[in-house]
Design brief:
With 139 residues, this protein is mainly alpha-helical. It folds into two domains: 1-73, Multidrug-efflux Transporter Regulator, Chain: A, Domain 2; 76-139. 63% of the residues lie in helices and 3% in strands. It has six helices and two strands. It has helices at 8-15, 19-27, 45-59, 64-73, 77-110, 120-130; strands spanning 132-133, 136-137. Strands 1-2 form a two-stranded antiparallel ribbon.
């Protein structure tokens, strides 16, 4: 039985993507669907699996460069692991910054000060921002 092939439009619709996104991923070397004699792409089940993996990777915050390394450029597990560990570290840093922002907003909402701008905790945070520039003390 011959393998069923799917058009770019059908694959794009299935994943909620615009066809140009699939073409871009192909240009970046992430996909390589075969073409018919008229030059139309025909996605095989393996290509559709790759699209699903890219969608999952993008949802996890991986860049196309990282995905290219994971899927095509890194045959060894050590390199794949390095890419994923670096991404995990970036996510952990992002989560820490988001948690700090959430804590600050929660404090403002729950602060006993009538106006959060007079809250000692807020003033201390503000002083820290006023006395630094891009992580360096102002001189």
């Amino acid at each position: 039985m011959a393998e069923e092939h799917t058009t770019i439009g059908a694959v794009a619709t299935r994943f909620g993507l615009a066809p140009h996104v699939l073409r871009h991923w192909e240009d970046r070397g992430l996909l390589c669907p075969p073409r018919d004699s008229a030059g139309r792409r025909h996605y095989r089940s393996t290509d559709i699996d790759t699209v699903a993996m890219i969608v999952l990777g993008k949802k996890a915050g991986l860049s196309l460069d990282d995905l290219a390394i994971l899927f095509t450029r890194a045959p060894d597990l050590a390199t794949r692991r390095e890419v994923l560990e670096a991404h995990r570290d970036r996510l952990a840093d992002q989560i820490a910054r988001t948690r700090a922002a959430l804590d600050a907003v929660t404090h403002v909402l729950e602060c006993d000060a009538e106006d959060f701008r007079t809250c000692p905790h807020f003033r201390a945070e503000l002083d820290g921002v006023l006395h630094t520039r891009r992580g360096r003390p102002l001189s």
